[in-house]
Amino acid sequence: MITIAVANQKGGEGKTTTSLNLAMGLARRNLKTLLIDMDPQANSTGIFLNPETVEKDLAHLFQNSANIKDIITPAYNEHLWVAPSSMRLAEMETVSVNSVEAPYILRDSLAGLKDFDFVIIDCPPSLSIFTVNSLVAANFVLIPLQAEKFSMDGIMGLQQTISSIKKRINPDLEILGALITQLKPQTLLTKTILPVLTKYFRIFEHTISDGVAIGESHLAKKSVFDYNRSSRQSQEYEGFIEEVLNELKK
Ligand SMILES: Nc1ncnc2c1ncn2[C@@H]1O[C@H](COP(=O)(O)OP(=O)(O)OP(=O)(O)O)[C@@H](O)[C@H]1O
Ligand SMILES: [Mg+2]
């Protein structure tokens, strides 16, 4: 079981889009995949499940009234399961912070789920206890980010959090790489920023360009592959997933 946390504390960098398409892309390759929505905004939950029919979500796990097996719900691909979130999860933040077990809740719950090939965790836009739980539970971190000035500014904070979790709690945690999302046609900005980024992280060769297929697929509550297989972003995410799988074979 390989667990990948999709993290970046800055908002809107493409965490949810990347998590849901990576999870569905793996499921479409017949790999049994669990998508964990660690964000109380519940954006990835809403793509695959009807939030009104969800009875138990990650808030119940964090308040210790359910285990992960009670929460995970099949999505519309037979190999894909979702651990849903809800606004109630935000309330758990202060409750859990007071407990010594707080950083380990997700990791301990995943120990009971051996039969998945992949677990993909969509993190919230903060370095909250939920991001910490995700980094503690993960083998790898994947960082989606835009090639923009403000996206660069937050990177040190994320790197420090990853290093301190690696040092204190999860020595095996590795940065899988950074995926450039929402890439605009080659501008001076992109040309200046990409070379700087490579000093911080391994950057995936595949990048995801900015295009309407992504927003439309979210509206249609589908992965980009199910929404428009021939769109440029669908092909780019396919290439990225192949690159991830090749990297993991090394
Ligand atoms: N390749 C793309 N092309 C166009 N729009 C995109 C692309 N990727 C993401 N977006 C849009 O950018 C916005 C942010 O994307 P997304 O929700 O995936 O980011 P996020 O990092 O999960 O955000 P948050 O921090 O709020 O959780 C969304 O409106 C999404 O539709
Ligand atoms: Mg998100």
Short description:
With 250 residues, the chain is an alpha/beta fold.
Summary keywords:
single chain, 250 residues, alpha/beta, Rossmann fold, binds adenosine-5'-triphosphate, binds magnesium ion
Q: Would you mind describing this structure in some detail?
A:
With 250 residues, the chain is an alpha/beta fold. The chain has helices spanning 15-28, 43-48, 58-62, 68-71, 88-97, 105-110, 129-137, 149-153, 155-168, 188-200, 212-219, 224-227, 232-249; strands spanning 2-6, 33-37, 73-74, 80-83, 118-122, 140-145, 174-180. The protein has one domain: P-loop containing nucleotide triphosphate hydrolases (Rossmann fold, 3-Layer(aba) Sandwich), CATH 3.40.50.300. It has 13 helices and 7 strands. It has a 7-stranded mixed sheet, sandwiched between helices. A hairpin with a 5-residue loop joins β3 (73-74) and β4. Bound molecules: adenosine-5'-triphosphate and magnesium ion. Residues 11-17, 39, 41, 43, 125, 181-182, 208, 210-211, 214-215, 218, 233 line the site of adenosine-5'-triphosphate. InterPro entries: AAA_dom (IPR025669), DNA_Partitioning_ATPase (IPR050678), P-loop_NTPase (IPR027417). Residues 3-175 form the AAA domain. It comes from Leptospira biflexa serovar Patoc (strain Patoc 1 / ATCC 23582 / Paris).
